[in-house]
Amino acid sequence: MNAESAGPDAARWRKRRHDQLRRFAIPDDLLPGSLSLCTVTCGKPTCHCATGEGHPHYTLAFISDGKRRVVHIPKSLVEDVRQRVEAGKQFQHAVREVLTANAELLILTMRQERSK
C-alpha cells in the first residue's frame, strides 16, 4: 500500500514516524519498569525506624516472563538506574508513536484506495 499521495495527514504521520525512528537506535542499557523510594524497618527495637518513618530503600519494579519482579537498588546506583528507566520510557513512547503512525498511514491508504 502506498500512502505517499494521501495528503497532508499522511505527510504529518510520515514525519512523526521518521522523527521517532531517527531519534532512537536501540540502546542496550535501557531499563523497564519504575524506580520507587520506599521505607523499611530494620527490626531493631531501639532504632529510630521502629517509631519513625523507616530507612529509605529504592526498588526497581518490572515485569519479566509475565511475573512482577521487585529488586533492591543500592544508593550508589540510584541515579544511574533512574536515568536508564527514564530512557526506557522515552524509547517505549517512541515505539508507540511509530506504531501509531503506521496504523494511521494504513487507514489513510485504505481510504484513498476505496475512493478510487
How far is it from the N-terminal to the C-terminal residue, by CA? 14 Å
Structural classification: alpha+beta
Helix content: 40-55%
Number of strands: 3
Oligomer classification: single chain
Whole-number radius of gyration?
23 Å
Uncertain stretches of 5 or more adjacent residues: none
Quick rundown:
This protein is an alpha+beta fold. The protein is built from two helices and three strands; from the N terminus they run H-E-E-E-H.
Structural commentary:
With 116 residues, this protein is α+β, with helices and mostly antiparallel strands. The chain has one domain (28-110). It is built from two helices and three strands. It has helices at 8-23, 78-114; strands spanning 34-40, 55-64, 67-73. Strands 1-2-3 form a three-stranded antiparallel sheet, covered by helices on one side. Helix 1 (8-23) packs antiparallel against helix 2 (78-114). The chain is elongated and about 80 Å long. The two termini are 14 Å apart.
Helix and strand topology:
Elements (H helix, E strand, L loop, with lengths): L7 H16 L10 E7 L14 E10 L2 E7 L4 H37 L2
Antiparallel strand pairs: 1-2, 2-3
Descriptors:
single chain; 116 residues; alpha+beta; 3-stranded antiparallel β-sheet; 2 helices; 3 strands; 46% helix
